[in-house]
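> @MW can you paste both from yesterday?
MW: sure, first one:
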Amino acid sequence: RVELFGGGRVAVIDDFRRIELSCGGRRTSRSWRGQAKGHREGVAAFLDAARAGGPPPIPVGVLVATSRAMIAAMESMRTGLPVDLGPGRAPEDDAPPDDSPVTSAAPPE
């Protein structure tokens, strides 16, 4: 179960099979027969971009920022202390231009 709160809204995801959205006292929900985790769609989008020679569906800078945040969250959970990620930067700062091929990505130093 994942619960997200923000901007006066609530989203609850149960077992990746049901989502319930609440805002201003109104609720909507949707259910799926299978688990909708998005893996199949993500792999398909990546393969489509690779075949077409286009940019990745998720910019490299966003992937790097997400990975850094997850590693910091795990470290914080392990130590019980906050983890400083350093100065904030827009994830796009690390992304290559749209016309350059992506071969690897390293975390910003």
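MW: second:
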Amino acid sequence: MKTTQNFLITIQGATSEKDVLERFTSQLERLSFSIQNMHFLNFQSSLFLLMHFELAESSDKKSLTKVLDKVAKHYKLELLICQLPESSITSPENRYILTLLSRQLPPELLTKLFRHLRKNQLCVTEVRPLDADDLHVFEIKIHADQPIERQQLMKELLELKSEYQLDLALQADDLFRRNKRLIFLDADMTFIQCEMINDMSRFAGKEAEVAEITQRAMDGKIQFNEALQQRVALLKCSPQRFGTLDFEYSVHPRC
């Protein structure tokens, strides 16, 4: 029975050369391996490359170091090769993606979030940014021994969301998520600087009642689905009246 070896390679340093990636991968062609994961960042002539790959039994760490060290020295880059223990490469059954969106990203926010996840036996395995202009958006990969109770976790993080004005979304990391075609999201107070349903309630003369239901939902006293149904039921205006909303009320984007 053939066995394989998993390695984590870190390459970093300052260089203005444009062919670093292809030079490294061309050296890897000499070995029998498969790339499992790769992260690359080239910012203001500072390069960072992280690769996780699997080597066949016939290859060893010494030969791997030899072929990569040659290129690293050519570009004067730092090279670190770490062999992963077998226990760290098992694939868990319960995998999730926690998406974080915030205008600011203070260290204490991440400290509280990561601490809460750890205390709930949720293991963070990867954090990567998403393109979002002026907003900070990160995908946080989570592994769990047991299925996560989504509503319970989001309720526990409600105080964190209110304190730092951020949005969090939890999804199973499965084929459905990776092949999504349609996304629904609550953009109020995140992408636009208002709570639209509250402002629409002005036209129905129900601003106080709707705002009270919104606050109860934000405090976790009622479910958001129930709150939405209650607020919509209070909006008794005609469609023609709401049709002029965009002309009478200015919506300012946050991003």
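> thanks! The first helix runs from residue 20 to 28.
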